[in-house]
Amino acid sequence: MKKVATRFAPSPTGPLHIGGVRTALFNWLYSKNKSGNFYLRIEDTDKERSKQEHKIQIINSLKWMGIEHNGEEYIQSEMIGEHITIAERLLENGNAYKCYCSAEEIEEQKKRAKQKKIPYVYNRKWRDISENQAPRDIKPVIRFKSKIEGTSLLKDLVQGNVEIENNTIEDFVILRNDKTPTYNLSATVDDHNMEVTHIIRGDDHKINTFKQIQIYEALGWDIPQFAHIPLIHTIDGKKLSKRDNASTLEDFSKIGILPEALRNYLLRLGWSYKDKEIFNLEESIKLFNLEGIGKSPSKLDMSRILSINEYYIKDSDEKVLFKKLKEYCKIYKEKIKEEKENTIKSSLTFLKNKAKTLEDIFNNSKYILNDKVVFNENDKVLINDEAKKIIYLFKDKTSKLEVFNRENLEQILNELIKSNNTNFKGVGQPLRIMLTGSKFGPGIYDIILSLGKKEVIKRLENIG
RNA sequence: GGUCCCUUCGUCUAUCGGUUAGGACACAUGGUUUUCAUCCAUGAAAGAGGGGUUCGAUUCCCCUAGGGACCGCCA
Q1: H helices then E strands: how many in chain A?
Q2: What is the Cα–Cα distance from A362 to A336, expressed in whole angstroms?
Q3: Cα dihedral sign for A27, A164, A242, A72?
Q4: DSSP class of A266
Q5: Which of residues 180-239 of A touch strand B (CB under 7 A)?
Q6: pLDDT tens-digit map of A206-238
Q7: CA–CA gap between residue A213 and residue A222 (Å, rounded)
Q8: Three-class SS of residue A229?
Q9: What is the dihedral of CA A27, A31, A34, A37, to 10 degrees?
Q10: Which of A202, A204, A205, A310 has the fewest beta carbons under 10 Å from its own?
């Protein structure tokens, strides 16, 4: 048995979106599960559209998700020479031929097919014409001599047996008239050279597989296993596209989604293991298999992502969570001041219970982060004369407090409730507004204790 | 239009011929809570339709409908 090798082969013609990330994840997980290798191949043979920035974005995305590839990135454009050699070999062996049709000629055929509403398949014009009839002024393309008779069977690890009539596969171009190889040739040659054993990729490549298998056969190469996973659809049921709304990882990271949460979500999108919902990394690797992949496309569900993220935030160790929050604030919000770090760190125990995202934690931390209270105008009006009286009394009693702890604070609050003939809300709400600027937020004792005596008194003195 | 694929609660899914069709998210209601949340409890919610096969079909087969992917000298 050969060692399992999988690969992820994106083209840097656009930013990597969440669907691509899932494909990468499945490949990576599968290789890990089988103690094999996982490679990254950048398919940058489309010179016009390939962009360095996209390549960087792809690599960073995978890094953010913790998906690491073995060895260096494999750059497809560096292997073009190899692809051309193979195309020539195919030509010599009679598995391919030169086609002298002009671009206009092909265009015309397609147009006619469309008018007649019949499917366009290249008419194999040059398949059997001898080359000495070739027009001088046209540079030929090389086409693969596809099977015409019979059927082909793909034993797909996800889709099951898929059978297709050979004559629906046209004689596809493998080398353009500028001598550059096309996708099906390049991908096949690279997969063979990289000794890829399992090709796990999107459903949209299924038809290509029949072309690629014929190339493997013509060359006498081992054919890898294929697993075509269903695509992720947008909420209105269409394929995720690089062009329109497709979400990139940045879209998620900037609202404070944790990579492990997204990994868990993506794992469960189209794959399942019994009723299990939460998979840590170790379990993901141990339990992942191809059998658990469903055959129908699935839709992205933001509320589920948020919910899983909430789970991971609550489940996080506070030290680790703080590091992530710090990094997050630095990149997307504002850097946490050094003197605030300890306060934030110790407040995470209660802050994280109110948050679905890192952004939520940031928002709920603003009363600590900002030196000056920023008041919500709608809430500020709740500070009426009655409230001011209570705030004054609380401030007075608190300032005399020798031991600033929850027990003593509770005592003060309880006394105030009694003596002012009010309830907890009557005391708690004005205090919260004065201390944080808003009537929403963490528990009042958490707020008071996290700010500390000095700061609490300072903020209460701020009373208009 | 051709080829191929898919179809269980709104969403992600479990079930591998016999279940009151299960779970999770979302939703609704109630409880805990000074607030917003959390948390807990409860509830509503599904086998596209029609034929077979079978003692019995969500499960196997066929047809219909709906949805999707592909049909490039893009990858």
Answers
A1: 19, 12
A2: 10
A3: positive
A4: H
A5: 180, 182-184, 186-187, 203-208, 230-231, 233, 237-239
A6: 999 999 999 999 999 999 999 999 999 887 777
A7: 9
A8: strand
A9: 160
A10: A204
Residues in chain A: 464
Q: What H or E segment, with its residue span, contains residue A391? A: helix A385-399
Where are the alpha helices (H) located in A34-164, listed in sequence order? 52-65, 80-92, 103-115
Q: What is the mean pLDDT of residues A366-390?
A: 89
Q: Measure CA A274 to chain center.
A: 24
Query: What whole-number distance in Å separates Cα of residue A89 and Cα of residue A130?
Result: 18
The answer to whether the beta carbons of residues A19 and A301 sit under 8 Å apart is no
Could you tell me if A31 and A38 are in contact, meaning their C-beta atoms sit under 8 angstroms apart?
Answer: yes
Expressed in angstroms, the distance from the first to the final Cα of chain A is 79
The closest of A140, A148, A149, A129 to A106, measured between CA atoms, is A140
- Residue A174: nearest nucleotide (C-alpha to C1'): B73
Q: What is the ipTM of this complex?
A: 0.96
Q: Render pLDDT for A277-289 as a digit per residue (tens, 0 to 9).
A: 999 999 999 999 9
Structure tokens at A154: 């793909």
A408's tokens: 């003593």
Paired tokens of A218: 């013509």
CB-strand contact A150/B, under 7 Å: no
Residue with tokens 């001598």: A179
> From the CA of A118, how many Å to the C1' of B36?
62
Place of tokens 């705030």: A391
Helix, strand or coil for residue A202? strand
**Phi and psi of A233, rounded to 5°?**
-105, 155
Closest nucleotide over all strands to A180 (CA to C1') = B73
